[in-house]
Records
---
Amino acid sequence: MQSDDLKSLVEAALPAIAAADAGALEELRVSLLGKNGNVTLLLKSLGGMDPDARKQAGAEINLVKTQITDALLARKTVLDVAALDAKLAAERIDVTAPPRPDSTGAIHPISRTMEELAAIFAPMGFAIAEGPDIETDWNNFTALNIPAHHPARAMMDTFYLQAPEGQRPPVLRTHTSPVQIRTMLDWAKAHGLAENAPPIRIVVPGRTFRADHDATHSPMFHQCEGLVIGEGIHLGHLKGVLNDMLRAYFGVPELPVRLRASYFPFTEPSMEVDIGWSRKTGEIGGGTDWLEIGGSGMVHPNVLANCGIDPRRFQGFAFGMGLERITMLKHGINDLRLFYESDVRWLRHYGVSPLSPASLHEGL
Ligand code: DAH
């Protein structure tokens, strides 16, 4: 191997490398440094040389190898950067572009109500909790202080599922209240005896089921439960939360809210929640009539105890309301069945653009 040959090899290779695209670069690498590449073969030929010649040729060939290796790497880096730039440019998202007109869909009014409730309760420190549609008899009834043959079970027309012989059948939850039980059980396990147990503050929007169907009842409907447990929680907290929440939801700053004595097995005392309205005009907050929108009360000590929470140390309040009910009131919708008929014209009218999320800042 002559130095001249080496020199011409390098002089041919380097410009070719510098001009190569990704495919050509790989071909060059193989033809130069691959198993049968020119440089590799030269290195192999060293074995047949006498020691002195080998020493000199070896140094020269290795120098060439280094030059070519460096050139290949440099070109590859340039090509990689260019490819990445091209990809970034092609996939760029213009976040300042105006939104497309939303002719494609709308948020269902019930979903919207859930989003609005989340927007109202989150700044008050409530988390969203969820539970399954299919519940145990214990979570849906017994733990809520509704024992097996209690008349309160008859208040709810329950859908029962099949159960193995001798077991109580699971139910389609008749209310969101079983999520109170799930939350308190988890909480008691984690914090029940701790000195600085954090309070529970949850709201539970979700589907509920009862065997009932007419203009004001649907077998599937929605509720939102609320639960606060802590030390020194009292009825004033309940009233304050309901006042703020209802005033924000209906957008009526002075909305009259009335708590009226009632009965629920899982609260003591129990209260119906009424808001002021006009029966004649339907105006919320106007007139002298009252409209019931939910139930509430101080969590019954039996319910706390059922969940492993010491009722002498912890107190709390709970409330529950129907989402169809408050949505109908807010938007003047007069038939519950419209929510589930999937009439696109109705959905377009009462639905909300997905591009305007519920927020207290803009008003609900
Ligand atoms: N679960 C009740 C129902 O479905 C509503 C309710 C009343 C929930 C009082 C509560 C409450 O949390 O305290 O009719």
---
Amino acid sequence: MKQRKTVYVCTECDYHYPKALGRCPQCGSYGTFVEEKFDAPEALVKEAEKSPRRGALTGGTAVPITAESAGDEPQRLLTGYSELDRVLGGGIVPGSVVLLSGEPGIGKSTLLTQICGVLSRENRVLYISGEESAHQLRLRAKRLGVASDELYILTETNIDEICAETDRISPDVIIADSIQTLYSDRSQTLQGSISQVRECAGMLANLAKGGGSSVILVGHVNKEGGIAGPKVLEHMVDTVLYFEGDRQQNIRIIRAIKNRYGATNEIGVFEMTDSGLSEVENPSAMLLADRPRGVSGSCAVCVMEGTRPIIAEIQALTTKTTFPSPKRASDGFDLGRLYLLLAVLEKRLGLCFSDMDVYVNVVSGLTLDEPACDAAVALALISSIKDIPVPFDLAAVGELGLAGEVRAVSALERRVKEAARLGFGQIVLPKSSSSGIEAAGIKLIRVGSVYEMLSIFTSPSVQQNKR
Ligand code: TYD
Ligand code: MG
């Protein structure tokens, strides 16, 4: 008879405690403790010894790191979508585990079905779904034009049955949609509970590390938008991808939060269409498509998303407030940073926002967290409060300091070139780091302080635009 013990576990942060607590002492969440039963250590060891899948990475003897000849990195599997391959660091590494997370309905299953279509041309792919029936999977695949004899579907949620099937057909790529729907008989808790998720993910990770298959897990998000389930899940996998976007809008952005095989700051941009997700290779052009002309409060900014510069539009609106304390709202830009910029503009330029409601919006649901956006946000705010448009062909980059100085930003030349490529005629940039920058067809407006930025509102082209 196995000895089982009970612990209480916080579903948010995996904190263990012998009693259920109202508030988690580790992460501070309320009402997140659930009861879990686990095998006592001795029983666990015996069980592990019996398990045939034990320790794909354990065991063996220590060897020098140089023992295996360098340069024989296994060839990565290309998904056929360069936007995704770039985020992965150049395709899927055989034997790796990728966790793809995102809100329901954002398009995770759609994306995976589409890449199955490409991968199954040269590899055997197994798509395990615990959420949809085989009929639904077939309908989606048909709609997306995916058909291949090497693409297998399996609607099973018992991890042991799944492992039996993977042993039978030995797929090169295994997709589990989603990890929260799988369960193991060894853990006596409910489907989706922490120990179930941990157990099933561990079994699948062993298939990857031991058998050389690549595994992609779909993970649900919790109510705060983070990845649901134990934090250990993120530690168990090699790459964590996050698929985000606004369900009302069609733009979808995929970004790597963790990547053992590549950089984490790259993003991939997709658009949801009637025939599935299509890549957006030129996101700047798409983001700027509906930009208003001759209206105050709008300024273009060039941000770096990984190695790629992207031009986005920032809008600001300032209106007389009817509240005792004025409202400040921001979508896609950090609210704390907005307060700081308003304070700098008040102090250094004498503008008065204290009786104004202020709204800032980054168009198209993009989230900008680079300090290099400061100059553009400041220009949009000044433009709105003065009701003078920023020239339509002007973009801005630069970080603002508390003294009102415009500070250097990274990758300036690449940003300037992207602005020039998209037809911008002038760009505001920090004086300190702009020497040596050359770009044809774009006027460089070098500014050292927020005060110097005001000059753009008195230039002749602006006066023409003024309504
Ligand atoms: P889905 O991939 O099922 O989302 P997830 O797996 O992340 O929960 O995508 C669901 C949404 O995508 C659904 O609202 C319909 C939409 N969609 C399209 O717009 N076009 C398509 O070709 C497909 C397959 C889905
Ligand atoms: Mg789905």
